[in-house]
Amino acid sequence: xxxxxxxxxxxxxxxxxxxxxxxxxxxxxxxxxxxxxxxxxxxxxxxxxxxxxxxxxxxxxxxxxxxxxxxxxxxxxxxxxxxxxxxxxxxxxxxxxxxxxxxxxxxxxxxxxxxxxxxxxxxxxxxxxxxxxxxxxxxxxxxxxxxxxxxxxxxxxxxxxxxxxxxxxxxxxxxxxxxxxxxxxxxxxxxxxxxxxxxxxxxxxxxxxxxxxxxxxxxxxxxxxxxxxxxxxxxxxxxxxxxxxxxxxxxxxxxxxxxxxxxxxxxxxxxxxxxxxxxxxxxx
Length: 284
Description:
By secondary structure, this protein is α/β, with parallel strands linked by helices. Helices cover 39% and strands 17% of the residues. It is built from 10 helices and 12 strands. Helix 2 (41-51) packs parallel to helix 4, helix 4 (72-92) runs parallel beside helix 5 and helix 6 crosses helix 8. It is globular, with a radius of gyration of 19 Å. The relative contact order is 0.16. InterPro entries: dTDP_dehydrorham_reduct, NAD(P)-bd_dom_sf, RmlD-like-bd.
Protein backbone atom coordinates (compact mmCIF):
# COMPACT_ATOMS: atom_id res chain seq x y z
CA UNK A 1 0.00 0.00 0.00
CA UNK A 2 1.24 3.47 -0.86
CA UNK A 3 0.02 7.02 -0.49
CA UNK A 4 0.98 8.69 -3.76
CA UNK A 5 1.14 12.43 -4.49
CA UNK A 6 0.97 13.36 -8.19
CA UNK A 7 1.94 16.91 -9.07
CA UNK A 8 1.13 18.56 -12.40
CA UNK A 9 -1.94 16.34 -12.54
CA UNK A 10 -3.78 18.52 -15.06
CA UNK A 11 -1.08 18.14 -17.73
CA UNK A 12 -0.85 15.49 -20.42
CA UNK A 13 0.87 12.81 -18.34
CA UNK A 14 -0.99 13.69 -15.16
CA UNK A 15 -4.33 13.38 -16.92
CA UNK A 16 -3.35 10.02 -18.41
CA UNK A 17 -2.43 8.84 -14.92
CA UNK A 18 -5.85 10.00 -13.67
CA UNK A 19 -7.49 7.85 -16.34
CA UNK A 20 -5.70 4.69 -15.21
CA UNK A 21 -5.87 2.57 -12.10
CA UNK A 22 -3.11 2.25 -9.56
CA UNK A 23 -3.27 -0.64 -7.10
CA UNK A 24 -6.55 -0.77 -5.16
CA UNK A 25 -4.39 -0.60 -2.03
CA UNK A 26 -2.96 2.78 -3.02
CA UNK A 27 -4.38 6.18 -2.15
CA UNK A 28 -3.56 8.65 -4.92
CA UNK A 29 -3.74 12.43 -4.51
CA UNK A 30 -3.87 14.35 -7.80
CA UNK A 31 -2.74 17.96 -7.47
CA UNK A 32 -1.98 20.91 -9.68
CA UNK A 33 -1.26 24.53 -8.81
CA UNK A 34 -4.75 25.03 -7.34
CA UNK A 35 -4.26 22.23 -4.80
CA UNK A 36 -0.52 22.47 -4.16
CA UNK A 37 2.07 25.11 -5.06
CA UNK A 38 5.28 23.15 -5.44
CA UNK A 39 7.33 26.35 -5.44
CA UNK A 40 6.40 26.55 -1.72
CA UNK A 41 8.51 24.16 0.34
CA UNK A 42 6.43 24.49 3.49
CA UNK A 43 3.22 23.78 1.57
CA UNK A 44 4.76 20.60 0.13
CA UNK A 45 5.85 19.38 3.56
CA UNK A 46 2.46 20.17 5.05
CA UNK A 47 0.66 18.23 2.30
CA UNK A 48 2.96 15.24 2.67
CA UNK A 49 2.51 15.12 6.43
CA UNK A 50 -1.25 15.65 6.31
CA UNK A 51 -1.81 12.84 3.81
CA UNK A 52 1.03 10.57 4.99
CA UNK A 53 2.57 10.56 1.49
CA UNK A 54 5.36 8.07 0.81
CA UNK A 55 5.70 8.47 -2.98
CA UNK A 56 5.78 11.63 -5.12
CA UNK A 57 5.32 11.48 -8.91
CA UNK A 58 6.29 14.86 -10.34
CA UNK A 59 4.67 15.53 -13.71
CA UNK A 60 4.83 19.32 -13.32
CA UNK A 61 7.16 21.28 -15.60
CA UNK A 62 7.56 24.46 -17.61
CA UNK A 63 7.49 22.95 -21.11
CA UNK A 64 7.06 25.99 -23.39
CA UNK A 65 10.45 25.50 -25.04
CA UNK A 66 10.59 28.73 -27.05
CA UNK A 67 8.98 30.89 -24.36
CA UNK A 68 11.57 29.66 -21.88
CA UNK A 69 14.25 31.51 -23.87
CA UNK A 70 12.53 34.77 -22.93
CA UNK A 71 11.26 33.76 -19.49
CA UNK A 72 14.20 31.92 -17.99
CA UNK A 73 13.22 32.93 -14.46
CA UNK A 74 9.85 31.19 -14.67
CA UNK A 75 11.35 28.10 -16.30
CA UNK A 76 13.99 27.93 -13.57
CA UNK A 77 11.39 28.34 -10.84
CA UNK A 78 9.37 25.35 -11.97
CA UNK A 79 11.98 23.10 -13.59
CA UNK A 80 14.75 23.51 -11.02
CA UNK A 81 13.63 25.25 -7.83
CA UNK A 82 10.28 23.47 -7.44
CA UNK A 83 11.99 20.14 -8.15
CA UNK A 84 14.57 20.92 -5.47
CA UNK A 85 11.69 21.62 -3.07
CA UNK A 86 10.12 18.24 -3.81
CA UNK A 87 13.46 16.46 -3.45
CA UNK A 88 14.30 18.16 -0.15
CA UNK A 89 10.81 17.42 1.18
CA UNK A 90 11.27 13.79 0.10
CA UNK A 91 14.49 13.62 2.14
CA UNK A 92 12.95 15.28 5.18
CA UNK A 93 9.81 13.13 5.19
CA UNK A 94 11.23 9.89 3.80
CA UNK A 95 9.49 9.72 0.39
CA UNK A 96 10.41 8.26 -2.98
CA UNK A 97 10.48 10.87 -5.76
CA UNK A 98 9.72 9.80 -9.33
CA UNK A 99 10.49 12.73 -11.61
CA UNK A 100 9.86 13.20 -15.34
CA UNK A 101 12.68 14.74 -17.37
CA UNK A 102 13.49 15.23 -21.04
CA UNK A 103 15.65 14.39 -24.05
CA UNK A 104 16.56 18.09 -24.19
CA UNK A 105 19.28 17.49 -21.58
CA UNK A 106 21.33 16.19 -24.55
CA UNK A 107 22.82 18.32 -27.34
CA UNK A 108 21.54 16.19 -30.21
CA UNK A 109 24.92 15.49 -31.81
CA UNK A 110 25.02 11.76 -31.08
CA UNK A 111 25.18 9.07 -33.77
CA UNK A 112 23.57 6.44 -31.53
CA UNK A 113 20.54 6.33 -29.20
CA UNK A 114 21.39 8.12 -25.97
CA UNK A 115 21.90 5.92 -22.92
CA UNK A 116 21.57 7.07 -19.32
CA UNK A 117 25.37 7.15 -19.08
CA UNK A 118 25.92 9.51 -22.02
CA UNK A 119 27.11 13.03 -21.11
CA UNK A 120 24.48 15.76 -20.98
CA UNK A 121 24.90 19.09 -22.74
CA UNK A 122 21.62 21.03 -23.03
CA UNK A 123 21.40 23.68 -25.76
CA UNK A 124 18.32 25.58 -24.57
CA UNK A 125 16.98 27.21 -21.42
CA UNK A 126 14.36 24.48 -21.20
CA UNK A 127 16.96 21.72 -21.43
CA UNK A 128 19.30 23.41 -18.98
CA UNK A 129 16.63 24.04 -16.36
CA UNK A 130 15.40 20.44 -16.65
CA UNK A 131 18.96 19.16 -16.20
CA UNK A 132 19.42 21.40 -13.18
CA UNK A 133 16.25 19.86 -11.77
CA UNK A 134 17.80 16.41 -12.17
CA UNK A 135 20.98 17.63 -10.49
CA UNK A 136 19.01 19.10 -7.58
CA UNK A 137 17.38 15.71 -7.00
CA UNK A 138 20.72 13.90 -6.91
CA UNK A 139 22.26 16.56 -4.67
CA UNK A 140 19.40 16.32 -2.16
CA UNK A 141 20.15 12.72 -1.28
CA UNK A 142 16.51 11.63 -1.67
CA UNK A 143 15.48 8.24 -2.98
CA UNK A 144 14.66 8.89 -6.64
CA UNK A 145 13.77 7.58 -10.06
CA UNK A 146 14.22 10.00 -12.97
CA UNK A 147 12.52 9.07 -16.25
CA UNK A 148 13.56 11.02 -19.34
CA UNK A 149 11.08 11.03 -22.18
CA UNK A 150 10.62 12.81 -25.53
CA UNK A 151 8.07 14.16 -28.02
CA UNK A 152 5.21 13.60 -25.57
CA UNK A 153 1.62 13.78 -26.80
CA UNK A 154 -1.87 12.72 -25.75
CA UNK A 155 -5.50 13.55 -26.38
CA UNK A 156 -5.23 16.33 -23.80
CA UNK A 157 -3.64 19.77 -23.71
CA UNK A 158 -1.53 21.28 -26.47
CA UNK A 159 0.77 18.98 -28.44
CA UNK A 160 2.08 18.21 -31.92
CA UNK A 161 -0.51 15.55 -32.70
CA UNK A 162 -3.47 17.76 -31.90
CA UNK A 163 -1.94 20.73 -33.71
CA UNK A 164 -1.18 18.79 -36.91
CA UNK A 165 -4.63 17.15 -36.82
CA UNK A 166 -6.27 20.56 -36.65
CA UNK A 167 -4.07 22.21 -39.29
CA UNK A 168 -4.54 19.30 -41.68
CA UNK A 169 -8.28 19.93 -41.63
CA UNK A 170 -7.78 23.65 -42.28
CA UNK A 171 -4.99 23.78 -44.88
CA UNK A 172 -4.01 22.24 -48.19
CA UNK A 173 -0.30 22.05 -47.33
CA UNK A 174 1.95 21.95 -44.27
CA UNK A 175 5.72 22.42 -44.00
CA UNK A 176 7.33 20.23 -41.33
CA UNK A 177 10.98 19.84 -40.30
CA UNK A 178 12.63 16.71 -41.68
CA UNK A 179 16.13 16.86 -40.16
CA UNK A 180 15.36 16.40 -36.46
CA UNK A 181 15.17 12.77 -35.33
CA UNK A 182 13.47 11.37 -32.25
CA UNK A 183 10.68 9.12 -31.04
CA UNK A 184 7.08 10.20 -30.36
CA UNK A 185 5.82 9.12 -26.94
CA UNK A 186 2.17 8.54 -26.11
CA UNK A 187 1.63 9.84 -22.58
CA UNK A 188 -0.81 6.99 -22.00
CA UNK A 189 1.96 4.43 -22.55
CA UNK A 190 4.29 6.32 -20.21
CA UNK A 191 1.52 6.43 -17.60
CA UNK A 192 1.06 2.66 -17.89
CA UNK A 193 4.81 2.16 -17.44
CA UNK A 194 4.86 4.37 -14.33
CA UNK A 195 2.04 2.37 -12.77
CA UNK A 196 3.92 -0.86 -13.51
CA UNK A 197 7.02 0.59 -11.90
CA UNK A 198 5.07 1.64 -8.81
CA UNK A 199 4.02 -1.99 -8.29
CA UNK A 200 7.59 -3.00 -7.50
CA UNK A 201 8.60 -3.62 -3.88
CA UNK A 202 12.32 -3.16 -4.52
CA UNK A 203 12.39 0.43 -5.82
CA UNK A 204 15.02 1.59 -3.29
CA UNK A 205 17.45 -0.84 -4.94
CA UNK A 206 16.59 0.45 -8.42
CA UNK A 207 17.30 4.15 -7.87
CA UNK A 208 18.62 6.00 -10.88
CA UNK A 209 17.93 7.56 -14.27
CA UNK A 210 15.90 5.78 -16.94
CA UNK A 211 14.77 6.51 -20.51
CA UNK A 212 11.27 5.88 -21.85
CA UNK A 213 9.73 6.58 -25.26
CA UNK A 214 7.79 4.42 -27.65
CA UNK A 215 9.84 2.21 -29.97
CA UNK A 216 11.19 3.27 -33.34
CA UNK A 217 12.41 6.58 -34.70
CA UNK A 218 11.27 9.25 -37.14
CA UNK A 219 11.54 12.90 -38.04
CA UNK A 220 8.85 15.48 -37.28
CA UNK A 221 7.95 15.26 -40.99
CA UNK A 222 7.46 11.49 -40.74
CA UNK A 223 5.41 11.99 -37.59
CA UNK A 224 3.22 14.62 -39.26
CA UNK A 225 2.64 12.46 -42.35
CA UNK A 226 1.47 9.58 -40.16
CA UNK A 227 -0.89 11.87 -38.24
CA UNK A 228 -2.39 13.26 -41.45
CA UNK A 229 -2.79 9.76 -42.89
CA UNK A 230 -4.71 8.63 -39.81
CA UNK A 231 -7.03 11.64 -39.98
CA UNK A 232 -7.76 10.94 -43.63
CA UNK A 233 -7.21 14.60 -44.53
CA UNK A 234 -6.06 15.50 -48.06
CA UNK A 235 -3.45 17.92 -46.74
CA UNK A 236 0.01 17.62 -48.37
CA UNK A 237 2.98 17.52 -45.97
CA UNK A 238 6.22 19.04 -47.27
CA UNK A 239 9.66 18.33 -45.75
CA UNK A 240 11.74 21.37 -44.80
CA UNK A 241 15.03 21.91 -42.99
CA UNK A 242 15.49 23.36 -39.53
CA UNK A 243 17.11 26.36 -41.18
CA UNK A 244 13.91 27.01 -43.12
CA UNK A 245 11.85 26.88 -39.94
CA UNK A 246 13.80 28.91 -37.35
CA UNK A 247 12.80 28.88 -33.68
CA UNK A 248 13.97 30.75 -30.59
CA UNK A 249 15.21 27.62 -28.83
CA UNK A 250 17.68 25.22 -30.41
CA UNK A 251 16.19 21.75 -30.84
CA UNK A 252 18.29 18.56 -30.70
CA UNK A 253 18.90 17.27 -34.23
CA UNK A 254 19.01 13.74 -32.82
CA UNK A 255 17.40 12.76 -29.53
CA UNK A 256 16.54 9.08 -29.82
CA UNK A 257 16.71 7.51 -26.36
CA UNK A 258 17.98 4.00 -25.61
CA UNK A 259 15.34 2.19 -23.51
CA UNK A 260 17.26 -0.99 -22.74
CA UNK A 261 17.69 -0.18 -19.04
CA UNK A 262 14.04 0.52 -18.24
CA UNK A 263 12.81 -2.47 -20.27
CA UNK A 264 15.15 -4.91 -18.60
CA UNK A 265 14.87 -3.50 -15.07
CA UNK A 266 11.07 -3.35 -14.97
CA UNK A 267 10.27 -6.05 -17.55
CA UNK A 268 8.42 -3.62 -19.81
CA UNK A 269 7.22 -4.25 -23.33
CA UNK A 270 7.04 -1.01 -25.31
CA UNK A 271 5.04 -0.69 -28.53
CA UNK A 272 6.04 1.02 -31.75
CA UNK A 273 5.27 4.73 -32.01
CA UNK A 274 2.92 4.20 -34.98
CA UNK A 275 0.79 1.71 -33.09
CA UNK A 276 0.66 3.98 -30.05
CA UNK A 277 -0.29 6.97 -32.23
CA UNK A 278 -3.24 5.13 -33.78
CA UNK A 279 -4.38 4.08 -30.31
CA UNK A 280 -4.26 7.65 -29.02
CA UNK A 281 -5.94 9.21 -32.06
CA UNK A 282 -8.77 6.69 -31.87
CA UNK A 283 -9.78 8.42 -28.63
CA UNK A 284 -10.04 11.89 -30.19
